[in-house]
Design brief:
about 250 residues; 10 strands; about 40% helix; globular; binds adenosine-5'-diphosphate; binds magnesium ion; membrane; ATP binding; MetN_ABC_transporter-like; cell membrane; ABC-type amino acid transporter activity
Length: about 250
């Protein structure tokens, strides 16, 4: 359902992703771990085509896109791929001058071309789902970090993407707010959403992941079931990374 083949991304001379291969079935949750600077965010941004990969192939659902060095993909192809995934950012990235409701309507109107009343109905449903039915008219600065991130999750879901991407969704949050965000993500996993999650919350990763991938220096070092990765990591680099977190 989701397939990444030989994905590479360089910034100038710096090679950040080097031949990433992965597949993910519908309804699976993949957790991506790895040291700072290993390329986790770049990988998610490539999947959402916020960055144009240097080379490789991405398939998400019915959309497949092949990238070649020095060759720009067509705008229409990029937009088609972008509609396949919804991204949740570490720093929320909500529109500050829009209410929670407007933030969750916007993508539906611009990306999905939904009529306003339909977008509004859907936004109300999603905000209720993330526990914000009573805060729909609040602006981001009137919301806690945890509430803002829940708006971010509702927004990511609003365009009905095949895949949800989470880039350290709780890293910017005070500890007491982390739980409310993880709870929402856990519920989405239980509903069978297909997700790729970058997180340093290892207890959460173990609970929610069908598979875990450790990325280091732009390559997949190890891939396995949560039990295997946490209890019997095969690679020295995995053991070293986990020992720093535990
Ligand atoms: P992670 O999310 O695992 O911490 P990133 O994907 O953010 O890692 O970054 C991986 C590497 O790519 C880092 O060395 C970073 O400096 C570099 N990098 C990321 N984005 C850019 C960019 N736009 N221009 C140049 N280098 C970048
Ligand atoms: Mg990152």
């Amino acid at each position: 359902m989701i397939e990444v083949r030989e994905l590479a991304k360089s910034f100038g001379d710096t090679s950040v992703l080097r031949g990433i291969n992965l597949t993910l079935e519908q309804g699976q949750v993949l957790v991506l771990i790895g040291p700072s600077g290993s390329g986790k965010s770049t990988l998610l941004r490539c999947l959402n085509v916020l960055e144009i990969p240097t080379s490789g192939t991405i398939t998400i659902g019915k959309v497949r896109l092949e990238f070649r060095p020095n060759s720009k993909p067509r705008k229409a192809d990029v937009l088609a791929m972008r509609r396949q995934s919804g991204m949740v950012f570490q720093a929320y990235h909500l529109f500050p001058h829009f209410t929670a409701l407007q933030n969750v309507m916007e993508g539906q109107i611009t990306v999905r071309r939904r009529p306003k009343n339909e977008a509004r109905t859907k936004a109300l449903q999603l905000l209720a789902k993330v526990g914000l039915a009573d805060r729909i008219d609040a602006y981001p600065h009137q919301l806690s970090g945890g509430q803002q991130q829940r708006v971010g999750i509702a927004r990511a879901m609003s365009i009905d993407p095949e895949l949800l991407l989470f880039d350290e969704p709780t890293s910017a949050l005070d500890p007491e707010l982390v739980r409310e965000v993880l709870k929402v993500i856990r519920e989405l996993a239980e509903e069978g959403r297909t997700m790729i999650i970058v997180t340093h919350e290892m207890k959460f990763a173990r609970e929610v992941a069908d598979r875990i991938i450790l990325l280091d220096e732009g390559v997949i070092v190890e891939e396995g079931l949560p039990e295997q990765i946490f209890s019997q990591p095969r690679e020295a680099r995995t053991r070293q990374f986990l020992s720093l977190l535990m």
